[in-house]
Design goal:
The structure holds 2 protein chains of 2 kinds. Chain A is an alpha/beta fold. Chain A contains 16 helices and 11 strands. Chain A has an 11-stranded mixed sheet with strand order 1-3-2-4-6-5-10-11-9-7-8, with helices on both faces. The two termini of chain A are 20 Å apart. Chain B is elongated and about 95 Å long. Classes of the chains: A alpha/beta, B alpha+beta. At the A-B interface, helix 10 of A face loops of B.
Chain lengths: 481, 478
């Protein structure tokens, strides 16, 4: 069936004219429409996709590694001529006049954006429940969350709405939903993919990355998304392909002691044990490494991310674009600047976003800055150093993505700390800017998927992918997935 | 001032100078002034979602140039920070500025205050972006973002100035330095240079500085003096009445000549500075800094002292001549052609300055004749082709018409009458018609000599060449 095909297959067959791009596009488009009723993974379909597909069939566009491949893009990437809202009411009606750099790169390789996906508002959340467009549901169990914040992107790929989707990861926002939905998701090295055109949540952590049903598709998308962009000063010019691994390498795989000591669901623990056994059977070495400062990772992450967010979200003031609310409930309209700001932002921003703005504002305020923000930055550095030390002992680190499989919708909504702790295993790599990914590893007794997390040294994204390919192969051979 | 002897005054200035780069500090938008509302605005200037700042290398270059002209230490590493506050003409909700690690530290400015050389030390100079402009119309306000993102260098003095005159002198000198370095036109009225004054007073024997009040909205050097003068008096009055001085920002109203409280510090913003995560720390290589510093030309104080030394000008003259770089350049170009520093200086600071002040020229580089042409005029006077008086007339004509002095003299027939034969006959007929006076002169009333010269000048409409007239007259009156 067409929707089962990989991105690489589809692009190849379109190029060889075995498949019509329009037929591909229509099939996925219709599938999106139908499937979306179950999960609400998508918030906007892009009808322009069909026109673009026609151009390929007419021979007006002929090349590209993703020729005619439909992709789904998280709603925090600006797309020219399309409403882009980061699933926040405050950006209601904002039509972006430009396209994000990494999406532009995918489009240049022939990819066609067919839809924008649901997400937690401004990527703040781990369950996709903070979206102004309503929650997205987990396609494997509709009573559960797909994870977040890229919940829509993960669900869309799991539902085969597109072979590839684009997400963003600040503290686990690609890896955790990929794990919950049973797909592959990569967060590259911080600085690998230009952030230009990606609506900022926490500038020093945000990275775009792909999600797909297999490592190869995700790797291809990532390779295309990575590229020097002068418009992002934190973008690093590095050659993705320069890190080549030797054939039949006997890997030294690190496992983080602290991760394995955490309160893991038994099936996940078993999955990991199986994986390590397979490694050893293959003659790979498994070594234990320590990241002792992980115990501070959650508070450090939430202080830094919230501080940056409190500043990044200041621009949503109702003056230049988006929601502009001047009508007070009692029939009056505002006539004073402060009141105007208050009204627009009170109505435009959701509770979780407000909570983090308050937290960040507090952490940066006079008298608390050193105690919170600066201290968090220092500990962040210690976590980075821990990883540096760990990578002296191993090539890659593996471990769980989350302690448990997908939880129920509304299950953690009334306890932010519980929700935040959900990121405990993904946040350390984010704080260190390291490439990391989630690879489907198995299913629990309820049939809910969970992933293996791979964390690699800075800039070794392509080595990580090569390693992941081999692990994926082991899982397939072992019948684990 | 009343009670003046009882108190010490401390004044510190914060000067914002717009750096004249072609494009903005963090975007490619033009910085051109006054080209229609919101015409020089990119998505970055307007703070659109997903946009990021990119530092303009030219702005950095100009900042280094300015800071080294102010004798600052350029820092190899500086860090941009976000200063957060909400205002409609600040599109991102924060201003990108430098806080803990500015691009330049220390520094000083030397200048002459009533012929005495003084030095004002600087604390720092840092780069930042300008805000846009709001215009308020009763019910509504309009926002123009053309200025938003224009690069600024904020120059901060130590709070060590002790009089309003000193503060104004410092500000004027900073303007002069900016103009000499060609980094900013230093226009207070148009706001390319803005000056905030921090004023505090304390009892004569008190060690600690008093409570600081910040004065804003001062758009001329004269108002710097007047605003500070008023503020010092107000603060003295406060203390004398047993009232407290609040740390606050006050606006200067130049019409009423008073300062008005704008906001009390208690209610003021906590700017929540933190390092700008969208920009990497600014790392400068020594070679890069050195190259810029080496391109820097002589500053105003050095030029003043050189003029005094090399051309034997008085300090006052040298100060006048160097008040504007273009004027002093003009002076130097002129004396290459006519080596009469004193004469050139007199003409430039006298007649030419008068004409310049009466005109509406932007600056001295725009004067309607070249140093070459001007030196021709002075040479004609020196060679007795025209008198000094006629010279002034010719100068005015040069200013109006841009013609050469030769052309003007010829067209108007202003050249001196130095034809001896012609003057012989004119003088003879004058002496003939004043036989009685000639007699008196010869009998010893030598004062009458002036009368005869006057008669000749009257007859020749001032064009007679004085040395020839003297020669003939002396001979005839023997």
């Amino acid at each position: 069936m067409l929707i089962e095909k990989s991105a690489i297959e589809i692009a190849k067959e379109i190029k060889e004219r075995k498949l019509s791009a329009l037929e591909v596009c229509e099939t996925f488009y219709n599938h999106c429409k139908e499937e979306n009723q179950k999960t609400n993974a998508l918030i906007r379909l892009d009808e322009r996709a069909l026109e673009k597909a026609k151009l390929i069939d007419e021979g007006k566009v002929t090349s590209g590694e993703l020729l005619g491949v439909p992709i789904v893009v998280k709603d925090n990437f600006c797309i020219k001529g399309r409403e882009t809202s980061a699933c926040s009411k405050i950006l209601e009606g904002f039509v972006s006049p430009y396209t994000a750099h990494c999406i532009e790169r995918l489009e240049k390789q022939g990819a066609i954006v067919i839809a924008q996906s649901n997400m937690d508002e401004f990527a703040m959340g781990s369950s996709n429940e903070t979206s102004a467009y309503g929650p997205c549901k987990n396609p494997i169990d509709l009573t559960r969350v797909p994870g977040g914040s890229s919940g829509g992107s993960a669900a869309a790929v799991a539902q085969k709405m597109a072979p590839i989707s684009v997400g963003s990861d600040t503290g686990g926002s690609i890896r955790q939903p990929a794990s919950f939905c049973g797909v592959t998701g990569i967060k590259p090295t911080y600085g690998a993919v230009s952030r230009y055109g990606m609506i900022a949540f926490a500038s020093s952590l945000d990275q775009a990355g792909p999600l797909a049903r297999n490592v190869n598709d995700a790797a291809l998308a990532l390779k295309i998304m990575i590229g020097k962009d002068v418009r992002d000063s934190t973008n690093i010019d590095f050659d993705f392909k320069s890190h080549k691994e030797t054939k039949n390498k006997k890997y030294k795989v690190g496992i983080i002691k602290e991760f394995f000591e955490s309160d893991l669901q038994p099936e996940i623990k078993n999955g990991l044990d199986n994986m390590l056994k397979m490694f050893k059977d293959k003659g790979w070495e498994v070594v234990e490494v320590e990241i002792p400062h992980t115990r501070f990772a959650i508070p450090v992450y939430y202080l830094i991310a919230a501080s940056e967010a409190s500043s990044n979200l200041s621009r949503y003031d109702g003056i230049r674009y988006g929601l502009r609310d001047i009508n007070i409930d009692d029939g009056r309209s505002v006539n004073e600047l402060k009141e105007f700001y208050k009204l627009t932002r009170s109505r435009g921003l959701g509770n979780e976003v407000k909570r983090r703005i308050l937290l960040g504002t507090f952490a940066l305020s006079a008298g608390y800055y050193d105690e919170f923000y600066i201290k968090a930055c220092r500990v962040r550095r210690l976590i980075f150093d821990d990883f540096q030390k760990a990578f002296q002992k191993c090539d890659h680190i593996v471990g769980p993505v989350t302690t448990h499989t997908a939880f129920k919708i509304n299950e953690k909504n009334d306890d932010p700390i519980k929700m935040y702790n959900n990121d405990i295993l993904t946040v350390p790599a984010s704080l260190s800017g390291l490439p990391c990914m989630s690879l489907p590893m198995g299913k629990d007794d309820l049939g809910l998927p969970f992933g293996a997390q791979i964390i690699s040294p800075q800039f070794e994204d392509s080595k990580m992918i090569e390693f992941a390919s081999q692990v994926e192969q082991l899982f397939v051979e072992g019948g684990q997935i | 001032m009343i009670f003046k002897d009882k108190y010490k005054v401390n004044i510190g200035l914060e000067i914002h100078a717009q750096l004249n780069s072609k494009s903005k500090c963090f975007s490619s938008a033009s910085t051109e002034f006054g080209k229609g509302h919101n015409n020089h605005v990119t998505l970055i200037c307007a703070g659109f979602p997903g946009t990021l700042p990119v530092l303009n290398a030219e702005a950095v270059r100009l900042a280094i140039k300015t800071a080294s002209a102010l004798n600052c230490n350029i820092q190899k590493t500086s860090i941009f920070s976000r200063k957060q506050y909400f205002y409609p003409d600040m599109p991102k909700g924060y201003q990108i500025t430098q806080f803990e690690y500015p691009i330049a530290l220390n520094g000083y400015v030397d200048f002459y205050l009533e012929e005495e050389k003084v030095r004002v030390e600087l604390e720092r100079a840092h780069m930042e972006e300008d805000a846009g402009k709001s215009t308020h119309y009763g019910e509504y306000s309009l926002i123009n973002l053309n200025r938003a993102g224009t690069p600024l260098l904020e120059i901060v003095s130590k709070p060590i100035m002790t009089s309003p005159q000193m503060a104004a002198g410092f500000a004027k000198t900073v303007r002069q330095v900016l103009r000499y370095a060609e980094v900013c036109d230093g226009n207070l009225e148009q706001g390319s240079m803005r000056c905030d004054c921090n004023v505090s007073i304390r009892l004569k024997d008190e060690e600690k500085l008093g409570t600081k009040v910040e004065l804003k909205n001062i758009n001329s050097f004269r108002f710097i003096e007047k605003a500070i003068e008023y503020e010092v008096q107000r603060q003295i009055q406060c203390l004398e009445n047993g009232e407290e001085i609040f740390q606050e920002t006050r606006l200067y109203d130049s019409v009423k000549n008073k300062t008005i409280s704008m906001r009390k510090k208690e209610a003021a913003n906590d700017y929540r500075y933190f390092p700008e995560p969208d920009l990497m720390p600014l790392q400068l290589e020594e070679e890069f800094i050195n190259r810029i510093v080496s391109e820097l030309s002589e500053g105003p104080i050095v030029r003043v002292e050189r003029f005094v030394q090399d051309f034997q000008l008085s300090l006052e003259e040298a100060l006048l001549l160097t008040s504007e770089r273009e004027l002093s350049d003009f002076f130097e170009q002129t004396i290459l052609k006519i080596n009469e520093p004193k004469m050139v200086s007199n003409w430039l600071t006298g007649e030419v300055t008068r004409l310049y002040n009466e005109s509406s020229l932007e600056d001295w580089s725009k004067i309607p004749f070249s140093a070459d042409t001007f030196s021709n005029l002075l040479n004609m006077i020196n060679n007795n082709e025209i008198s000094g008086k006629i010279g002034k007339e010719v100068l005015e004509e040069m200013w109006k018409t841009s013609k050469t002095p030769q052309e003007i003299v010829q067209e108007k027939g202003l050249s001196l009458l130095s034809d001896e034969n012609k003057l012989q006959s004119i003088i003879e007929s004058i002496l003939n018609s004043h036989q009685d006076k000639v007699e008196e002169y010869r009998n010893g009333k030598v004062k009458l000599y002036g009368f005869f010269v006057g008669q000749v000048m009257k007859e020749t409409q001032g064009q007679a060449s004085p040395p020839i007239v003297n020669k003939i007259l002396k001979e005839k009156l023997k």
